[in-house]
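Fig. S4 source data, part A: sequence.
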Amino acid sequence: MNILPKTPVSILQEMMVKKSITPNYELIHNGGGTHQNTFTYQVSCDGLTATGTGRCKKDAKHEAAKAMLEAIAKHISLPQLPASPSESPVRTPLPIIVPAPPKSPANVPFRNTIGELQDLCSTNNLDDPVYEEISDVGPPHARVFTVQCLVSTFVEKGIATTKKQAKHQAAQKMIDRIIAVVSDEGSDHMKDRNTKKEQMASEIAIARYPELTVNHEVMKSKVNWGLKVLNFHKRLKESFNEENLKIFQDKLEVLSNLVNKYNNNNNEELYSNLKQELESTLISSNIQFYYTSFASAHIGYIIGMQLSTAPDISEIGSGKSAIEAEVNAIKKIIDALQFFVN
């Protein structure tokens, strides 16, 4: 049989019964009628008084009894009473102090600090920001949200009346913190690493697309970049001289014929010849190629093929077998190459 622990009210009642005294409880504050109701009880017995406050009358009465037990112990010089055997069952917590969110001036334009922080992290080789809502307090009509932003080992919090505002505020604080750290002298190694990385990328771009580079000192008029982008598909054809272009076009025609022969005969030797001829053609033209394959329960086999041309060419072939899927991918690759060089 489980014995329920005694509450402060029952303990005080038993103590006073031994003295033939009945504790007198009086409701001295009734906070009903607002969204933050509070009640206060005053208890009197044995010449002492004490008060207690709670979100309901029962909680307030228990708190008053607890305060009275402490007052009695102090009055008769007893050691401080330990915690009550059973805390009063608080049905509704007391109103908490809601943090006041900072207000932005009306004349300040909106900033997408979330996007700014994402860009800042990418620029400085940091992990992407992680946002987490850690607090949601206040009455329904006046909620206040706290959102935490985590980048690496840095943590910042934003407080606002909407989740979006709190997230932006946390991002703003994180931006200020990262900028302060990155602009420090101790972060010079990160700047050097980024500078070297940018220089290497620029050198690769200049070597691969020399015609797209601009000599700003010589050029006196604006470049029509729209035309350069429009003619980008011609880059592959322009990478060959006239003689090599003709050889490459002839090889593509041979490959196209091999594909048609294989589709008519499904001969393993033809498949082997097709693959060897394709790899030989691409390697001799300094074109790198990559295969990706996976099986699907609904489709069968899927093969992806990508060429490091300018522009890059990516095609996918499917089939009931891996060979059939690969041949279909090769056919699409050949068709694409013929489109770009003819």
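Fig. S4 source data, part B ends here. Residues 242-265 form the longest helix (24 residues).
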